């Protein structure tokens, strides 16, 4: 792998950058691999990278029906945080945050992790109770999260409107300072490059059409649009299409797929210093390095595989943005798009072995998978390599829905009573 | 005094109405009808902006919404300031204040231009390769620097005070674009009488016909034809015409979003007008007549101010009477630029030469140019340009060999042919196909009921365009193809050949040393695109993201096809093999506040109030938001804070009587032959044996066995239940019930009706409750024997029919008076008056919370969090063990639900009675354990109880019931607080008062 650095950039400039090699190989698929990962998004590529780096398994293919990083990895609002309520969640997401902190240097690719602080706003008494519970739970779990008064929120995020006369006034907020953003495409590309350099084959434009199983029921490989690819271990990391792929192996997943929208404004000079989220009135906002306000909207009420949502959903989000940040009312929406999120009944992911031998699944990240990318890939690689979960992902089984051992972050965020 | 570059005659500007405006502090004059761009050009101003990355000086490239360069900030004050507006779309108004962007200290001298010199070190994606050392420096050092350099305009500093409105409309035919195709379609469709909406982003209808000279349609010149067409449309009542209106988004099932700009073009708009209006149009058929966009040519230094699209220059001269320069070089691969050259020459611009990429250009317009004395250089390309703030010369050289010639000029017009505008069609999810003959992507298969007409599907001849629009209009109207379906238009216009060029034009310079721009706004050069392919970015989506080409505010309108061609060339693949990036809404940037519309301030969300709300407000209640409800939280008197008020309210209820507005409780009337069976299945409790006239506390589970909602249910008759739910749970519970009724048990004869709004609920609680109500009630015996706890009676109160519940959420003798909502306030007033001798005290939700906590009653959503079984929260008794089935029963039988270490509800008492725990605080066994600590549970409710005389708390603790008597700890930032685990009942443990 060519080393990326300021020096190499400087040196290559004198040969008109002709010396840069492809960042990843684009090989033809081999007949068989030790592990096939289905889905070349951030989570799948990270899985392949850690399989190679931490487990010495380099005979790995990541196969992708479109282009790598083209699904939710390239469509999300890039928010990173780990201040989840339950210990299991906090451990998983904080594992990711710790990896984010060193990721650019680990991958030798600037993924632009920027711990700008994630501020979650409370608008009613119930929000306050809920967020304080988070703050207390996080504190003893060793995860930073602090309570700010409305005035402190305003000081941290000057464009914020905290007028008490607002329809839903800001009563305070929970701030995780280590939370922030990263450059989503760079995460996919950085993992792809680093995995490829360690021998992983990334095969794009290759759609899985079937999963072949042997007489003992164990997986033997995948049928694809480019022929059969054998593998004794298959990791499915296909986000919104996970239920479709898993059905090929006869596994019915507890997932529903919904369109989730995001949008950006035209670029402007720096004005927004952090990430602000309001679950109660449905608005998520940060400013990208390029200067665009990056805004997350909600999911549609109905399941769908189309990568677009209804106009009224984006409209509702912009209502909230204009209310919370009145100075942005004249800003303009530049692009609006959708992705498909796979949602579990308890809004926590599944990172686990499956009832089929040799088949592993990483899915159910719902609306918040990007933040977990490094941690998810890391523990999923462990699960595939050892055929047993890492202690961090051990609770995130499929069976928890059968057994009722939920990690219910959605209910924890709960609703007004 | 007319501006220097204003042509003496011609154009559609109103020379009788001069308009003064400023740009970067300098005052200029234009005319009504000018855009900011045309007015600046008329004043000889071409330098209007700086590019995103290299801060290169940039001029006005186009005359439309595809403009990548001429972005300005406009606004007379901060509340009206809008950044990043295209000067080509801004209509000037008297007193307008406009400024350039992304430059410091000035437009002419911009320090950021140092990036241009460093360009070789800043190739595509350079930031992914560096800024990684030392660890953590990205966010602290590099990122702030990059952020400051990036961005274009600046955010407004103040809140916008303008209004925005929204309209919903339906029509049979929506026509997007009012050029020749769109006008013909709208005329044809509206003639049949169906409802037609025609919109166009420009200030006036007509599109390209507004800048044609010497074009005749059906015997009238183009402008006259347009005027007549618009007049005809105006006269038809079934037609709605919307100018300055952009169809920004195409949503499923023919929902199209239109953004109408209502007042930006007015110097002093009336206060009754909104700034913009959002139209959500549901159309049976959509006709897209979006036209085409001229493609730039990609040659070295093709971005200097004074380099302009040929057709744009023609528009400025013909439509705006503004001369874009004195001496022009034309660089083209298409006939249309000859027409531009001829028109400009006629307007007094010297045409120094036409460099034509084609080795042997022929055709009428070429010959006409030659005959007019214009020097035509076949097989010639521009090798480069000079000039810092304005082009000074172009260097021309033969494509194959030969010398180069430097031609002085202040204007360079280019044309690479035209690209059909596919944005809306692509948004509709229609499939596009590469047309080999046209060498362009065109609409192929429609998904919605939609038709593309005219140039946006690659039809260019005016007669054909008009006929195409007409035929589509007839077909869309769906009234059968009558005689007009194949109408022919007689057109006398210049015949043009339609060739073009995509990608880099040939030149003899060192390609690695020159900047030939593909995406002007984002400063993406041909080199950058090639580097991306060299580095393995082969999908066009990857190239787009790596180089940022096509991601600027013009969404690549002028750049996409050129980038595609360069990638195609670099990879040795055909254009269709490389693919096309997705077009996303909006078509052009659309104001945030337009979407928000009226949803602002008080109207941000509806406020739901009870019939007693005004009374509470008059009595000084402090309200809290519960969902969209406003609920009275407490009623402070004489400067009390919340704790003092709540303590007083609590004492009043315990000692005498309190009155509480419970109207927000969800209410569902469950009626029908199978109502009892339905209730049996929906709730954990047994209902079959509940007699009419009795109440029961019901618990509802989700399918996974966890508590979803609770509420008191009255059986009014064998086939009728009055169900109450939590305030927030009302819609959810009704949906849940309907879901089961309609999808699982359609055989049950049950009807569900939400009656939340129909009943006002007045809770009268306390030892004196009966005494207060007795004189007011008719036909109901309130005595202990006749109406015991958990019974319901119908009768009258104050002459109003009532369902009177004897029930208590306070632990006191209590009644809940249900009366028709319209009588709620009157009955409340009467009860309040009747209670005066007893010191009746209004209390709010906070007091209600304390009172129920003293009794250990749960609140769903506070004690529960979606992971609790009834047994976890001490409601195991409410589960009908003998029942055959109910929602959640099977889940409750799972082994995990039986574990003794499940979190269970307990009471918590601090050793210091004055210490009130914080709700949400965690509970641990060993407060000195290292982080991360294992939490046993958390505090769910915590209050200072004036009645108990100390703090009380409820918590959910792992194996909690088995820990009663133990001491646990609540770790807080200031140190741990020890708590004793107790039974979660703090007052009247025997429960006698409730039966009083």
Automatic annotation (TrEMBL), chain A:
One of its GO terms (cellular component) is cytoplasm. GO terms for molecular function: nucleotide binding; sarcosine oxidase activity. It is an enzyme of class 1 (oxidoreductase). It catalyses: sarcosine + (6S)-5,6,7,8-tetrahydrofolate + O2 = (6R)-5,10-methylene-5,6,7,8-tetrahydrofolate + glycine + H2O2; sarcosine + O2 + H2O = formaldehyde + glycine + H2O2. The keyword Hydrolase does not apply. GO terms for biological process: tetrahydrofolate metabolic process. It is found in: Cytoplasm. Coiled coil: none annotated. PROSITE patterns: RHODANESE_3. It comes from the Bacteria. InterPro entries: FAD-dep_OxRdtase (IPR006076), FAD/NAD-bd_sf (IPR036188), Rhodanese-like_dom (IPR001763), SoxB (IPR006278). Keywords: Cytoplasm, FAD, Flavoprotein, FMN, Nucleotide-binding, Oxidoreductase. SUPFAM superfamilies: FAD-linked reductases, C-terminal domain, FAD/NAD(P)-binding domain. Belongs to the SoxB family. This is Sarcosine oxidase subunit beta. The lineage of its organism: Bacteria, Pseudomonadati, Pseudomonadota, Alphaproteobacteria, Hyphomicrobiales.
UniProtKB/TrEMBL annotation, chain B:
This is Sarcosine oxidase subunit alpha. Residues 903-988 form the Aminomethyltransferase C-terminal domain. Residues 515-597 form the SoxA A3 domain. Pfam families: Fer2_4 (PF13510), GCV_T (PF01571), GCV_T_C (PF08669), Pyr_redox_2 (PF07992), SO_alpha_A3 (PF17806). GO terms for molecular function: sarcosine oxidase activity. Residues 612-883 form the GCVT N-terminal domain. The keyword Transit peptide does not apply. Residues 172-445 form the FAD/NAD(P)-binding domain. One of its GO terms (biological process) is tetrahydrofolate metabolic process. Belongs to the GcvT family. Keywords: Oxidoreductase.
């Amino acid at each position: 792998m060519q080393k990326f650095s300021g020096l190499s950039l400087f040196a290559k400039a004198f040969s008109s950058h002709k010396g840069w090699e492809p960042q990843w190989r684009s090989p033809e698929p081999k007949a068989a691999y030790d592990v096939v990962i289905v889905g070349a998004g951030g989570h799948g590529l990270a899985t392949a990278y850690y399989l190679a780096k931490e487990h010495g398994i380099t005979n790995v293919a990541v196969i992708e029906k479109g282009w790598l990083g083209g699904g939710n990895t390239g469509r999300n609002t890039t928010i990173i945080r780990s201040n989840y309520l339950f210990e299991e969640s906090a451990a998983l997401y904080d594992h990711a945050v710790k990896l984010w902190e060193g990721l650019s240097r680990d991958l030798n690719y600037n993924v632009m992790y920027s711990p700008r602080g994630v501020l979650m706003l409370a608008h009613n008494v119930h929000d306050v109770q809920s967020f304080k519970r988070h703050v207390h739970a996080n504190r003893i779990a060793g995860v930073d999260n602090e309570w700010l008064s409305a005035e402190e929120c305003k000081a941290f995020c000057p464009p914020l409107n905290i007028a008490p006369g607002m329809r839903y006034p800001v009563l305070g907020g929970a701030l995780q300072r280590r939370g922030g953003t990263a450059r989503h495409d760079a995460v996919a590309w950085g993992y792809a490059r680093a995995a490829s350099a360690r021998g992983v084959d990334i095969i794009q434009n290759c759609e899985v059409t079937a999963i072949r199983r042997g007489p003992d029921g164990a997986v033997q490989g995948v049928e694809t649009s480019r022929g059969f690819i054998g593998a004794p271990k298959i990791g499915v990391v296909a986000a919104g299409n996970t239920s479709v792929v898993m059905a090929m192996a006869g596994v019915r997943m507890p997932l529903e797929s919904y369109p989730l929208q995001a949008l950006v404004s035209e670029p402007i000079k720096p004005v927004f210093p952090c990430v602000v989220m309001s679950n109660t009135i449905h608005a998520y906002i940060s400013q990208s390095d390029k200067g665009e306000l990056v805004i997350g909207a909600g999911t549609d009420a109905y399941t769908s595989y189309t990568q677009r949502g209804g106009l009224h959903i984006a409209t509702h989000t912009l209502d909230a943005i204009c209310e919370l940040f009145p100075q942005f009312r004249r800003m303009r929406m530049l692009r609006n798009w959708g992705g498909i999120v796979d949602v579990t009944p308890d809004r926590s992911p599944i990172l686990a072995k499956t009832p089929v031998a040799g088949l592993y699944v990483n899915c159910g990240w719902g609306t918040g998978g990007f933040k977990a990318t490094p941690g998810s890939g890391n523990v999923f690689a462990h699960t595939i390599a050892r055929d047993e979960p890492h202690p961090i992902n051990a609770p995130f089984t499929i069976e928890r829905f059968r057994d009722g051992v939920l990690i219910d972050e959605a209910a924890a965020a709960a609703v007004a009573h | 005094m007319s501006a220097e570059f204003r042509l003496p005659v011609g154009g559609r500007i109103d020379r009788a109405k001069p308009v003064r405006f400023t740009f970067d502090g300098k005052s200029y004059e234009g005319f009504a009808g000018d855009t900011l761009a045309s007015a600046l050009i008329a004043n000889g101003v071409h330098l209007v902006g700086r590019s995103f990355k290299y801060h290169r000086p940039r001029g006005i490239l186009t005359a439309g919404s595809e403009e990548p360069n001429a972005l300005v900030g406009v606004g007379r004050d901060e509340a009206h300031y809008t950044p990043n507006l295209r000067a080509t779309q801004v209509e000037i108004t008297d007193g307008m204040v406009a400024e350039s962007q992304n430059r410091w200290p000035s437009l002419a001298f911009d320090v950021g231009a140092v990036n241009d010199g460093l360009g070789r070190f800043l190739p595509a994606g350079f930031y992914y390769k560096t800024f990684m050392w030392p660890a953590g420096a990205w966010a602290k050092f590099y990122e702030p620097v990059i952020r400051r350099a990036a961005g274009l305009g600046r955010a407004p500093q103040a809140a916008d005070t303008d209004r925005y409105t929204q309209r919903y409309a339906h029509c049979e035919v929506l026509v997007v674009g009012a050029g020749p195709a769109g006008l013909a379609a709208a005329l044809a469709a509206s003639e049949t009488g169906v409802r037609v909406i025609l919109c166009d982003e420009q200030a006036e209808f007509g599109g390209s016909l507004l800048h044609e000279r010497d074009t005749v349609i059906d015997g009238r010149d183009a402008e006259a034809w347009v005027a007549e067409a618009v007049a005809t449309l105006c006269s038809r009542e079934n037609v709605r015409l919307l100018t300055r209106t952009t169809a920004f988004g195409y949503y499923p099932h023919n929902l199209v979003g239109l953004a109408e700009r209502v007042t930006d073009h007015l110097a002093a708009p009336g206060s009754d007008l909104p700034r913009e209006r959002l139209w959500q149009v549901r159309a049976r058929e959509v006709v897209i007549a979006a036209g085409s966009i001229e493609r730039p040519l990609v040659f070295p230094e093709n971005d200097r101010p004074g380099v302009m699209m040929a057709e744009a220059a023609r528009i400025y001269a013909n439509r705006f009477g503004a001369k874009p320069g004195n001496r022009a070089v034309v660089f083209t691969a298409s006939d249309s630029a000859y027409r531009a050259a001829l028109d400009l020459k006629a307007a007094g611009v010297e045409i120094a030469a036409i460099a034509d990429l084609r080795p042997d250009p022929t055709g009428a317009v070429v010959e006409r140019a030659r005959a007019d004395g214009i020097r035509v250089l076949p097989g010639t390309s521009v090798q480069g340009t000079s000039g810092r703030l304005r082009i000074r010369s172009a260097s021309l050289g033969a494509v194959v060999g030969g010398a180069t010639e430097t031609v002085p000029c202040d204007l360079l017009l280019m044309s690479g042919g035209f690209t059909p505008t596919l944005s809306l069609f692509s948004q509709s999810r229609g499939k596009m196909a590469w047309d080999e003959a046209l060498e362009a992507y065109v609409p192929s298969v429609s998904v919605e009921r939609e038709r593309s007409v005219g140039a946006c599907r690659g039809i260019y001849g005016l007669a054909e365009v008009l006929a195409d629009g007409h035929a589509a209009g007839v077909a869309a109207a769906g009234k059968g193809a009558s005689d007009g379906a194949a109408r022919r238009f007689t057109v006398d216009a210049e015949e043009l050949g339609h060739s073009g060029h995509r990608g880099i034009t040939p030149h003899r310079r060192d390609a690695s040393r020159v900047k030939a721009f593909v995406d002007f706004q984002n400063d993406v050069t041909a080199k950058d695109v090639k580097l991306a392919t060299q580095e393995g970015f082969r999908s066009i989506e990857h190239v787009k993201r790596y180089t940022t080409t096509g991601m600027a505010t013009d969404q690549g309108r002028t750049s996409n096809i050129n980038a595609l061609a360069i990638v195609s060339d670099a990879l040795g693949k055909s254009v269709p093999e490389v693919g096309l990036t997705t077009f996303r809404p909006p078509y052009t940037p659309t104001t945030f506040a337009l979407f928000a519309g009226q949803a602002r301030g008080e109207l941000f969300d509806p406020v739901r109030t009870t019939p007693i709300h005004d009374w509470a407000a008059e009595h000084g209640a402090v309200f809290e938001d519960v969902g969209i409800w406003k609920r009275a939280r407490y009623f402070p008197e004489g400067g009390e804070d919340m704790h003092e008020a709540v303590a007083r309210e609590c004492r009043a209820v315990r000692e005498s009587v309190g009155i509480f507005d419970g109207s927000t409780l969800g209410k569902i009337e469950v009626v029908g032959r199978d109502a009892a069976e339905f209730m049996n299945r929906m709730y954990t409790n047994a209902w079959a044996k509940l007699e009419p006239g009795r109440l029961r506390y019901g618990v509802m589970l989700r399918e996974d066995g966890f508590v979803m909602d609770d509420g008191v249910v009255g059986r009014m008759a064998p086939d009728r239940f009055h169900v109450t739910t939590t305030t927030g749970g009302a819609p959810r519970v009704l949906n849940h019930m309907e879901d089961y009724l309609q999808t699982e048990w359609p055989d049950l004869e049950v009807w569900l009706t939400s009656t939340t709004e129909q009943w006002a609920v007045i809770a009268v609680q306390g030892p004196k409750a009966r005494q207060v109500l007795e004189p007011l009630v008719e036909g109901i015996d309130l005595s202990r024997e006749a109406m015991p706890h958990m019974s319901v009676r119908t009768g009258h109160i104050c002459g109003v029919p009532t369902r009177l519940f004897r029930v208590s959420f306070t632990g006191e003798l209590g009644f809940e008076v249900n009366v028709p909502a319209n009588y709620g306030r009157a009955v409340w007033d009467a009860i309040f008056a009747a209670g005066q001798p007893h010191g009746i005290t209004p209390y709010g939700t906070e007091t209600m919370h304390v009172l129920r906590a003293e009794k250990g009653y749960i609140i769903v959503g506070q004690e529960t969090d979606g992971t609790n079984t009834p047994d976890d929260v001490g409601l195991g008794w409410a589960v009908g063990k003998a029942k055959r089935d109910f929602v959640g029963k099977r889940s409750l039988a799972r082994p995990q639900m039986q574990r003794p270490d499940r979190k269970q509800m307990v009471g918590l008492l601090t050793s210091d009675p004055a210490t009130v725990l914080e709700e949400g605080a965690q509970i641990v066994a060993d407060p000195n354990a290292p982080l991360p600590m294992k939490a046993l549970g958390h505090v769910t409710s915590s209050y200072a109880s004036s009645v108990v005389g100390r703090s009380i708390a409820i918590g959910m603790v792992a194996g909690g019931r088995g820990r009663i008597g133990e001491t646990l700890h609540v770790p807080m930032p200031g140190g741990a607080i020890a708590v004793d685990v107790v039974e979660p009942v703090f007052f009247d443990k025997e429960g006698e008062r409730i039966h009083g």
